[in-house]
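Quarterly update from the structural biology core.
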Amino acid sequence: MAVKKRQKTLSHGRPRISNPKERMSSQRSRTIIRTHHRLQKEHAAAVKKGDTKLAEKIAKDIEENGGLKVYQAASKQGQSKDRGGDSSKVLVEWLQDAGVIQSKNSTTEDKGINSKQLRCLEVGALSTKNEISKFPQQIEMTRIDLNSQGPGIEKQDFMERPLPTSSEETFDMISLSLVLNYVPDPAQRGEMLKRLTHFLKNTTTEGAVLPILFLVLPLPCVDNSRYFNELLLTRIMKNLGFSMRKKKKTSKLCYYLFSLTGKSNSVKTEKRKISDGAIMNNFSIVVD
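Predicted structure, tokenized:
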């Protein structure tokens, strides 16, 4: 059945939109995003329970609310300059602060360690013209999305991307901006984080910045969840071999930069209530 088939794919990508110039109020775009996320979670729960009729009804509700096409328009508009802009600007700033890349105006001699291109995988890519894409001499971009919006973005589900068979197929950087929160199931989020480690290069240099993961989440996922907070995120990432190098919070988003410094262990993270409140959400990450 079509409904069940969709559930097998982690819908972290976003579809092509026919009218990218459409404008909507910030309130409307937030309502669209929140409603879509809620319906996606309800749909995933119905499929998991085997309730086909309910799953079909929710799928119909999603389409009646504009579906992924309208969600994409709202999501992409949120990255416009007048709505806060492109999240990769923060990544570029942190890479420059760490000396990983140099400014676009630097000479070849100034680039030093970057005489060899670094490889970056951008999961859930929205554009080929964001800030991280403005350093072609220093960074080789690989962009993937469940529904490519045009040339330069490969249509691919990250969870179905073949695992690397050689170091040439791994990356120095992975960008996961507003992707993990789109995955409807806590255990699937954990699987995504575990899978990331296979795509990052191995390093034997103590204290090295690379390889890195750039992770962006909505602020409420970290600061207003009954089952999740920054302390738990740090613990999960440490168990996966990551150490936090940078963090930044705005009124809407949390930005994190993690270096992969070790190997994953077998420690599990279950869904447990750590706080409670009438207006709190249920975002969580489960690692089996």
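Strands lie at 118-123, 139-145, 154-155, 173-177, 212-218, 242-249, 253-260.
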